[in-house]
Amino acid sequence: MLRIKFAEGRSTFQPGEKVDVLVQWDESSPPELISLDVSWFTVGKGTEDSHSIAETEIAAESSSGQATWAFTLPRGPLSCDGKNLSIQWRILGEGENNDEDITLPFVLGWQDEPIDLRKFPVEEEKLHP
Amino acid sequence: MNESEDHSFPVEEGRDNGPQVLKTSTSRGCIFAFVLFFAIVWNVVVSLFLGSTIHTWRQQGNAPVGQLLFMTPFVLVGIGTMIAVVYLFLGLFNPKPTVVCSDQYIYPGSEIEFSWMFQGSTARISRLRLIFEGTESVSYRQGTSTRTDSSVFFRKCLIDVASPDEISTGAVLMTIPPNLMHTFRTSNNKIIYSVRVEGVIRFWPDVSEQFEFSVLPPPLSSSPSSIA
C-alpha cells in the first residue's frame, strides 16, 4: 500500500512555505518507482486547466519503507471556491506497479480555508430608476 | 500539465508602482464594425431568400404561407441587427471616458484611487456611476461549440453622481478587500476585475465602458493584512 502524508500533519499552507511530504510503502510487490506531482487544477463548469509546480521520483528498493520529499509552494494561484470555478491543490502519488493513484489535497492560502468567492457582496445595479 | 513557468496569475514586471491608465476591455468601434458586418451579411442573405419568396408569390398569385412563416424569425433578427447598428452608431458619438488607477500593482488590502475624465462634452450625461466588479468566467465545450459563462461575484458601486461638475472629472478611493482572490487567467477559466463607467444620457444610448485591471497575489514577504 502506498501512503502520502504531510510531515507536519496539517493540510493548509501559505505561499512560499516549504512543505515536507512523507511517503510510505508496504506491499507484497513494492513499486520500483514512486512518482509524486504537486499541481493546482480547476474544478467547476469550465474545462479543466491544471499546472504542475513540482515533481519527483522516489526509488523504492525494499518491500516496505519510507522517504521524505520537500518542495516550496509558489505565490499562487491561491485556493478558492466560486459559483462556477474553484481552484484546488493536490499531490498526486503513483507507484510504478500500482494502478491506483493516491491524491493528497491541500489548501494554498493566507487563511485556513480557500477564499470563498460567494461571500463577497454583489450590489444591485439599477442605472435607470 | 507541465512544470513550466506559471502564467495563471499576474506578477510585478519590474516597473515602478506608479499610476496606470486602464484599458477598455472592448472598443466601441470594433463592436460597431462587428455588428455592422454581421447585419450586412445576415440581411443580404435573408433578402435573397425573401426576394425569391416574393417572386414565387407574384408568379403563382397565392401567398406561400409556409415559406413566409419560416422566413419571419429571420426577418425579425435582421430588423434587430439594423436597430443595433443604429444604436451602436449613435453611441460612437458619446463622450469617451478615461480611468486612471493610482497604482500599477494592486494587491488584496491595497488602498487605491480611481480617477476619471472624459474626452468630449459631458453636458448630456445626467447620471454617472463607477462600478467595481469581480467576475468568474468559464469556457466549456457543448456539442461542437464552445460556450462561455460569466458570473459576477463582487460588485461595489464606487460613485453615483448627478451634478455636471462631479460627472466631468473626479476621483474616488477604494480599499481592496484583504481576503479578495487575485486575478487568475488560463485558457478556460478566469477571475477578472474591472471598473465599469456607466453614464445615463436621456433619449440616447448610454455611456458604458469597462476597464480591466489585475489584482496581484500578495508578495511572499507579506500577508494581505499587512498590505495597505
Q: Please report the number of helical segments of chain A.
A: 0
Q: How many extended strands of chain B?
A: 10
| Class derived from helix and strand content of chain A | mainly beta
Report the biggest beta sheet of chain B as strand number plus sense, adding barrel if it closes: 6 strands, antiparallel
Describe this structure in words.
The complex is a heterodimer of chains A (129) and B (228). Chain A is mainly beta. Chain A is elongated, with a radius of gyration of 18 Å. The model of chain A has no long low-confidence stretch (mean pLDDT 88). In chain A, a hairpin with a 3-residue loop joins strand 7 and strand 8. In chain A, the strands form two sheets. In chain A, strands 2, 4, 5, 7, 8, 9 and 10 form a seven-stranded mixed sheet that branches. In chain A, strands 1-3-6 form a three-stranded antiparallel sheet, with no helix packed on it. Chain A is built from no helices and ten strands. Chain B is α+β, with helices and mostly antiparallel strands and 228 residues long. Chain B has three helices and ten strands, in the order E-E-H-H-E-E-E-E-H-E-E-E-E. In chain B, the strands form two sheets. In chain B, strands 2, 5, 6, 8, 9 and 10 form a six-stranded antiparallel sheet that branches. In chain B, strands 1-3-4-7 form a four-stranded antiparallel sheet. The longest helix of chain B has 33 residues. The two termini of chain B are 36 Å apart. The chains are: A mainly beta (129), B alpha+beta (228). At the A-B interface, strand 4 and strand 5 of A face strand 5, strand 6 and strand 9 of B.
